[in-house]
Amino acid sequence: MRRLAVGFALALSVATAPGAWACESCPKNPASEAPAAVPVAPTEPLEEIAFVAAATPSADPEALLVTLEAERVEAVDDEAGYVTATGKVRAVYDGITLTADGIHFDRVTMRGEASGSVRLSQGIHHLKAERIRFDLATRTIDADDWQATIERQAWFGGRRLHFTPDLAYSEDVRVSPCAQEDPGYWFAGDRLDWYPKRKTWNLSGRWVKAVVGGVPVMVIPYFVATIGQAAQRFSVGLQDTRIDANVGFNDAQGIFVDSRTPYQLGPDMPGAVPVRVMSSRGVSAGVIQDFPAPAEAHGRFDANYTQYFPWLTPDKGRQGPHANLSFTKDWGGARSIMNVGYRVDVGRRNDEQYQVDPGGFPVHRLPELTTTWPAVSLGPVTLGPSVRAGYIFEENSGTGSGVTSAGLSLGLPSWNPNAFWSTGFYGGASTAYYTGDRSQSVLSLGMGNAQRWAPWFTTNFNLETQPVYKTGGGTPFLHDGATAVDRVVVGSNLNIYGPWSLGSGAWWARNYDKPFAVDSFGMGDLWFGLRYAVNCLSLGVTFRPPRPGQPFTQFSFDYQLAGF
Fold it and tell me: Is the bond leading into 183 cis (omega within 30 degrees of zero)?
C-alpha cells in the first residue's frame, strides 16, 4: 500500500488536481437503502472514520491508515469489506488528499472509484476529473476527461489517462506552460507519455495545433518534444520564467523586435539574454545574471552592447558597451541597492538593473547607493521614505557631480462614495543636492478618479500639480531635470466581447517655465489600443498618432506569455 502512495504522487506529477474515489464495478454487499438517498441537514457535522486500507494481517497499520470524512460514511467488516462515503467526501492518506461527491473502496480487491467533482492533490501536483478508478494492488490509476496542474510549471488535459509506476500516458492531450485550470493558450497533440522513474515526458502527434483562446492559430504537421531533468536545468520549458516579447514600429527606431531568453546556471542563479533589433538604429544584445552575494545580499550583473547599422550615424553615448553591477540587501524591512555602472540607461523599470531599449540618457554610476524603507502609517496618511547618494557622470551633457537626495512617497485616504465613483489621492516629495551649490526640490500632488458606467465600460481622469524649487540653476543633469507643470489625464476602457477590450487615453500639461507662451498648454500624449487578455496571455495593439512635440506616428504590437 505504501508503494501505491508513491504511485499516486508520481501520477500527480503528470497532471493533478484535488480528487476523490467511488466504484461501480466493485462487489457490493446488500444494503437496505442507498447512502445517497439519506438526507443530511446542511448544519449537521460530518462523519469521520479511520481505517486500514488493505485487509492484510502483516501490513503495517500506521503505513496504511486512511482518514475519511463525509456527510455519510458506511463501513462494512473490519477485516475484509468495503467502505462507502457520500457528500463532501475528503480522504487523506500519506500526504495525498482526495475530495469528491462519493467514494467506494473494496478492501478485498484493493480497488476503488471516486466520482463527482473528483480532485486529487499532493504538494504542488493536482488532478481533477469526474471519475477516477484506482487499483492499489497493481498501483494503477485511470481517469477520463481529466485536467491537471503542476503549480507554477504546467497544465495538462486529455481524454483518457492511464498511470502505472513505469509509464503514464494519455490520448488527445492538451499541454500548456500556463499552470492555471483555464489557460489562455495550449498545444493539442495525439499522445502524452510520462516516465516517472526518468522524470521526463514526451508530447507527440501529427497535425499538432497551437490554440489561443480556443482558436487554432498554427498547425505543425509532425511534432515531438521531450522535457526532462536536463532540459529543466537550462530552463527550457519551465518554472518561474517568462518570455516577454514586443514587436512594433515608431519613427525613432523604425520596426523593432525585442525578446528575452531565460536560462539557469544553478540554484539562485537565473539569467536571461535580452536582444533588441531596430531597423532605424541597429542591434542591442546583452546578458542579465543574478548570483548570491555575501552577507545574504543579492547580486546582479547586467551588460549589453549596442551596434548601429553601418549606414547610420550613432547617437551620442548610445553605441557601444553598457554594464552595471548591483548588490541588493534587505535589512530591518528596508532595502539597500548599490550600483556601479558604465553607461547605464536611467528611467528603467525598478525591478531590473538593465533595460534592452538603448534610449534614455547613458550615465556612469561611480557608485550610487539607494535605500528605501517600507511605508509607515501616520493616521490616515502613509509615508515611504528613501535616500540616495553617489557620484554620477552623464555622457549626453558631459557633466559629473556628486548627488545626495531624499524622497518621500505619500499615500492619502481614498474616497469611494458608491459603486460608480472611486477617487484616490497620491503625492510625493524629493530634494536633491549636487556639488557646486545646486539643488532641486520637487513636490507632486495628484487625484485619480475612476467611473464605472456599466460592467463593460469605465472611464478615468487624473489631475496632478508639480511645483519645482531650484537653487544655483537646479540639477546639472538632463536625466533628472524637473519642470513645474499642471497635468490632466483622461482615459477609457470598453470591454467589447469576452476578453477583448478597447482603450484610449490622452494627457495635457501646462508648463510654468513659459507661462505666457502660446504653447504653454499642449497635449503630451494620445493613444488608442486594442487588447486581448486571458490567463497567462495578453495581446495588444497600440496606435499613437502625430501630435505637438512628437511629430511622428507610433504603431506597436506587444504580447506576453506567462508560464514559460
Answer: no
